[in-house]
């Protein structure tokens, strides 16, 4: 077994979680900011290397999803000023949305028999519909920018559809791998929900380490489930 990709990804991930709180700070220890800015764009390439090293038959959709995630990470790092930060956030959101679409296509292609069972299809999506409705109560609160509101709605649809496709895969092809994959999609929802509430100005926020840590675990679980 080639342990180098595992060591590389684990090191990059741990360094990013450790340093993320210093990425935008004025901490006198500038090396922490440098570590944060170097490891963030290295996350998805390291995970892609890990995936290609262990996947018996790599999926072009998984590769495309990881590349979209990488572009999303890059976009969120480009914030020269407040106005540009808002624009780049939407660009990053678009890339992450594309990543979820690629994941969803990959998962749905392996569970196509679901569409012969429409009642089960509707029942399985019900929890995601409830989640979206709860999220929308925050999005339509006063003070939320219309562009952010529209972007978040489209993104939530793509995100829940991606997780739903993982659920269908688990139901029709139950295994340890598909269970790990589905758990990864749920962690993704948790991570992005916290990030969304943070960006629309909710007072109760979890630390950035939770957001990046859960994001890394979610991507890793999804990739592990597709080996």
- State the helix count: 9
Helical residue percent band: over 70%
The dominant shape is globular
In sequence order, what are the helices and strands, one letter per element? HHHHHHHHH
State which percent range the strand residues make up.
under 5%
Structural domain count: 1
Q: What characterizes the major β-sheet?
A: none
Poorly predicted runs of 5 or more residues: none
Number of strands: 0
Overall pLDDT level: 86
Q: Span from first to last CA? A: 14 Å
**Secondary-structure class:** mainly alpha
Mind telling me the C-alpha Rg? Answer: 18 Å
Protein described:
- The chain has 227 residues and is an all-alpha fold.
- It has one domain.
- Helix content is 76%, strand content 0%.
- The chain contains nine helices and no strands.
- It has helices spanning 4-19, 30-39, 43-54, 60-77, 82-108, 118-139, 146-172, 176-199, 208-224.
- Helix 1 runs antiparallel to helix 9 (208-224) and helix 3 (43-54) packs antiparallel against helix 4 (60-77).
- It starts with a helix and ends with a helix.
Quick description:
The protein has helices spanning 4-19, 30-39, 43-54, 60-77, 82-108, 118-139, 146-172, 176-199, 208-224. With 227 residues, the chain is an all-alpha fold.
Present the secondary structure layout:
Blueprint (H helix, E strand, L loop, with lengths): L3 H16 L10 H10 L3 H12 L5 H18 L4 H27 L9 H22 L6 H27 L3 H24 L8 H17 L3
Helix pairs in contact: 1-2, 1-3, 1-9, 3-4, 4-5, 5-7, 6-7, 7-8, 8-9
């Amino acid at each position: 077994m080639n342990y180098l990709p595992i060591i590389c990804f684990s090191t990059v991930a741990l360094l990013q979680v450790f340093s993320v709180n210093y990425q935008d700070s004025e901490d006198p220890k500038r090396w922490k900011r440098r570590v944060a800015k170097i490891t963030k764009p290295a996350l998805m390439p390291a995970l892609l290397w890990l995936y290609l090293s262990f996947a018996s038959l790599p999926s072009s959709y998984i590769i495309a999803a990881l590349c979209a995630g990488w572009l999303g990470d890059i976009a969120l790092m480009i914030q020269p000023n407040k106005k540009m930060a808002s624009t780049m956030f939407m660009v990053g959101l678009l890339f992450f949305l594309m990543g979820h679409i690629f994941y969803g296509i990959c998962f749905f292609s392996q569970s196509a028999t679901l569409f012969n069972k429409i009642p089960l299809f509707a029942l399985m999506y019900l929890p995601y519909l409830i989640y979206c409705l709860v999220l929308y109560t925050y999005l339509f609160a006063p003070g939320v920018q219309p562009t952010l509101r529209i972007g978040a709605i489209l993104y939530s649809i793509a995100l829940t559809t991606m997780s739903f496709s993982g659920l269908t895969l688990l139901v029709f092809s139950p295994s340890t791998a598909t269970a790990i994959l589905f758990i990864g999609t749920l962690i993704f929802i948790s991570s992005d929900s916290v990030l969304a509430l943070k960006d629309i100005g909710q007072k109760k926020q979890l630390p950035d380490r939770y957001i990046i840590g859960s994001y890394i675990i979610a991507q890793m679980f999804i990739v592990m489930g597709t080996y």
